Amino acid sequence: MTLTIEKIRTTNPIILNVANMVTPQHVADAINFIGGSPIMFTDPREAGDLTGISNALVLNLGSTNPEAFKSVISSGREANKKDIPVVVDPVAIGASKIRDTNFKLLSESVKIAAIRGNISEIAHIADVAWASKGIDAGQDSGDKIAIAKTAAIKTGAFIIISGEQDIVTDGHSVFIIQNGNPQFATNVGAGDMLDGIIGVALATEFNLESCAFGTALLSVAGEIAAQEYPNQPYSFFNAVFDTLAQLDDTTFQKYAKIIQE
Question: Which residues are recorded as binding substrate (predicted)?
Fold first, then answer.
């Protein structure tokens, strides 16, 4: 992999975000601490101006009100005009008709570079049955790598399945990230933070390897934070942010477990 934390911080890419109403501060902090520069927006009238100064766009579909979705579509189209990567989080797709409709409209209107979700969300996109619906992935049988590949081929986007092991694929090559900590699952917003960090990585260097690198950054930070707070999820979460801010390439390489299938 040619992407490095040093390169991210030297480049300092601007990441425009249509964030879930629950987590904008977490997302902005994660982007900032790893070396990007976040912009959060909700007004679709700003889409052209703000996309024009940005290096990647991250779209969280957790807010389904019409004005939020106007911002999603308008900024996505502007990002395509500028040819900057669009990262999408299809929050709880499959849980309601409106979420399915919004994702369908977005995918028909905007070229998506990367989609990050849990196994339930990605299985829904791949048209594969899975047990759980919502933001939390359930336990079910099935080949997660095959599901990720199917979703990638269907959408033409990089697919990231986050979980105990993260899977990153373009439908052909596959990276498995074997870092992380279970306390991420108890903190709302960890996935949204990952969306932003993936946006930072792809804005700095656009390829599948960078997508895997960005995915591993948060997992490694969690693994390091858990050494100090193994059973204190709130303190752990704060330590994740501290670790992201302090993380360097030497430390990252020491901990990173990125396996190419």
Answer: 40, 189
| Predicted confidence band of residue 112 (pLDDT cuts 50, 70, 90) | very high
Q: Name the burial class of residue 104, with classes exposed (0-12), middle (13-18) and buried (19+) by CB atoms within 10 angstroms of its CB.
A: exposed
Say which residue the tokens 């109403």 belong to: 21
Query: pLDDT averaged over the chain?
Result: 94
Number of domains the chain is built from:
1
pTM of the model: 0.95
Give the CATH number for residue 249.
Answer: 3.40.1190.20
Q: Which domain holds residue 195?
A: 5-260
- Residues tagged in the binding site annotation: 40, 116, 162, 189
pLDDT in tens, 172-195: 999 999 999 999 999 999 999 999
Enumerate the known binding-site residues for ATP: 116, 162
Task: Show binding-site residues for substrate.
Answer: 40, 189
Distance CA(46)–CA(40), nearest Å, equals: 11
The three state secondary structure string of the chain is CCCCHHHHHHHCCEEEEECCCCCHHHHHHHHHHHCCEEEECCCHHHHHHHHHCCCEEEEECCCCCHHHHHHHHHHHHHHHHHCCCEEEECCCCCCCHHHHHHHHHHHHHCCCCEEEECHHHHHHHCCCCCCCCCCCCCCCCCCHHHHHHHHHHHHCCEEEECCCCEEEECCCCEEEECCCCHHHHHCCCHHHHHHHHHHHHHHHCCCHHHHHHHHHHHHHHHHHHHHHCCCCHHHHHHHHHHHHHHCCHHHHHHHCCEEEC
Model pLDDT, residue 136 = 45
